[in-house]
Amino acid sequence: MIDSDVIKHLMSEKIILTVIDSQNSINFDLEYIKSKVHGAFQLCLRKSKESAPLKELNSIEISIIDDKQITKVHGEFMNDPSPTDVITFDYGEILVSAETALSNSEEMQVSLENEILLYIIHGMLHLGGYLDGSNAEFKEMKSLQEMILGSCLQVS
Question: Rounded CA gap, 64 and 95, in Å?
Answer without folding.
Answer: 6
